[in-house]
Amino acid sequence: MQGRIVPANAEWIAEAGQMIRSGALVAFATETVYGLGADATNGEAVARIFEAKGRPTFNPLIVHVLGLEQALVIGTFLPMARRLIEAFWPGPLTLVVPRTPTCDVSDLVSAGLPTIALRSPHHPVARALLSESQRPIAAPSANRSGHVSATSAEHVAEDIGNKAALILDAGPTTLGLESTVVRIVDETPVLLRPGAVTAEAIEEVVGGRISRQGEAGAQITSPGQLASHYAPRARLRLNAYDWRPDEAVLAFGAIAERPARAFINLSASGDLIEAAANLFAALRTLDSSGALSIAATPIPPSGLGEAINDRLRRAAAPRGSAFA
Length: 324
Ligand code: TXA
Ligand code: MG
Hints:
Blueprint: E1 4-7, H1 10-21, E2 26-28, E3 35-39, H2 43-53, E4 62-64, H3 68-74, H4 79-88, E5 93-98, E6 115-119, H5 124-133, E7 137-138, H6 153-160, E8 166-169, E9 180-183, E10 190-193, H7 199-206, E11 211-212, H8 223-226, E12 235-237, E13 248-251, E14 262-265, H9 272-287, E15 293-296, H10 304-316
Helix pairs in contact: 1-5, 2-9, 9-10
Bound molecules: threonylcarbamoyladenylate (TXA) and magnesium ion.
């Protein structure tokens, strides 16, 4: 069953919808490129996406929704964002907006950021899968990290075939280029990634030139650097084997709980998927304990451990340092 390429007909899409609901990964066609999808509200399913892609860091993922109604539960849309949605949804435009306070999408999808990327695809298979699963679906391009995006079921199978429970084959994608990503958190929209919707088409709707990522005035730089923005207020001490009672503790594996300001074990059984799913929420909770220091016990360096350690090193880096 693993990595099985199946025709994207009604029966298989219904099956795939059930698989998404049960936490499995399903690769599916969109109008841009194939996506590797998981239930966005299931942290462990989302962690499996990072594992499947072999991503050494947690880049934030795009959440796919049927339309504005579903999107409003997850994100906050300024009038300018709504105008763009009216013009380009469903279609290859992704909007990065603030998460709503009640958003139930896993923190791992946003890589701990207060924002979330949303898009409503118009490909009928993507839409049918969203309907069947009744879940928002987090899906990056279905390629291994560092490879080009997959535009056919065969490419998906070559790259990450054994990681998806099912690959819904709907033939080659029509656009073959990823969606355009625009960030709208204030009055200055920023083009984070050029894509299938041209900047000119977006400028026509927003009524002026749109700032490009990295330009003066556009504060937001590359997503990789963005991911380093969320750092706890508390100092983070890595590879700690011991702690003071006034410290908060981020544990992993068979670590006995001893007096501490707050104590969270990312995975008592030593499961890196479970740990990745819990990471960002745990950092937030420990930070809000008021402790001045968080002691993190060692996490193995392999598999998803590489991404978890990367994230922890960023969070531990001295404030204001440019962490490449
Ligand atoms: O066409 C597409 O967009 C495809 C299909 C499957 O929908 N998906 C895709 O996903 O290309 P991915 O994960 O390969 O690219 C997502 C992009 C990355 O550049 C990521 O950094 C950015 O969106 N992104 C996601 N959430 C973000 C956030 N909160 N802030 C800034 N950038 C974000
Ligand atoms: Mg990609």
